[in-house]
Design brief:
By secondary structure, the protein is mainly alpha-helical. It is built from 5 helices and 5 strands, in the order H-H-H-E-H-E-E-E-E-H. The strands form 2 sheets. A 3-stranded antiparallel sheet has the order 2-3-4, with no helix packed on it. A two-stranded parallel sheet has the order 1-5. Strand 2 and strand 3 form a beta hairpin. Helix 2 runs antiparallel to helix 3. It starts with a helix and ends in an 18-residue tail after the last helix. 78% of the residues lie in helices and 6% in strands.
Amino acid sequence: TPSPAGLGNANSIKSTTDSTLQFWQNERMELFQKCKNLESQKAVLEAELEERRKEFGEEKIEMMQKWEDNQKQWSLKQQEMIRDWERQKKHLVEQFHHDKDRWLRARGIPELQATDKYEWEREKDQIMKNWKEETDILTTIWNEDKEEWTKEKKLLLNTFDAQRDRFVQDKTDGMVTMESRLEAYSQESELLKAEVAALQADKARSQEENERNKLFVLGATQALDEWRDLIANVAGGNVDLAQSFVTLATEKEIEKEKAQQCMQEKELLTQQYKQELTLRKQLHNTLEDIKGNVRVIVRVRPYLQREQVPVQGYDEGKVDVADGMTVTVTTATAGAKGFDFFRALSMESTQEEVFEEVRPLMQSTLDGFNVCIMAYGQTGSGKT
């Protein structure tokens, strides 16, 4: 008896399953290699980031040391200038006393006459005046030097602060960039790990399916052998009848396999339907959120009978719906004034048109969201 078509179909399924397993194994190896490369890049980036941080710390310490050295130099310079000024002052005082003693010794008398005393007072005043002028000059020079030193110190401090801030900003930006790249690599690594896990799950499912196919092929082979033997015994050597039984058995197995495939497709379609339903809910309610959580819709009621006929004491008025979003009220005294709404319904709007504005909210309610619709207006204005 020739080999049944079911055996060829089973062998084809086995071959397809083996090739699929080989494909997923190759994909898994490529993803593992990508993960390994990403881990290496991550390690390099971490080492580079740590080195940058170390360099930043060393440069910060060096800049702080320079700043302290400059502070010490400025203090020493200030002290030196103060000592110079004290020495000059002391020298002027000593010179004054020396001139006074020399002047007294030149006259040779302990008691001064009135004329000499007047001359001495005049010379003393002149000496004191000269000494004061020299002191003022030295004070001015000292103040100018001090002011210049203060400006120089302030300029150096500003320069140092600017350099420090620029250095800190550059290093901070570099570290942020490195951390961002490191985070991106980490995320990509996590995604690849998730893909590897999914591939491993697919591989496990493929292996289970392959085992089921092998069992199916084995069972089909044994069943066909049994049918062949049974049919041969029943038919008593009638080859055509035996072949007919084999064909029927083969078609039965094929139909059984098709039924299994239909069940699998049904499960797949059911899963896809649930995913699409979830996506539809998300998109629908996202659209509703974009429209706004609070929306005001106005419906202009028809004129009452007393409003259609001019009444004494009332200004004639007119209400128009301009573009479906704006209501224009025109009066004789105030003129035309527009009011904007999310939606404006005219007097001619039907109940169906009103319902179309709230239909999406009904869908959100069925999707499980809380919705509130508040109708406000006078009696007979169309709230229901």
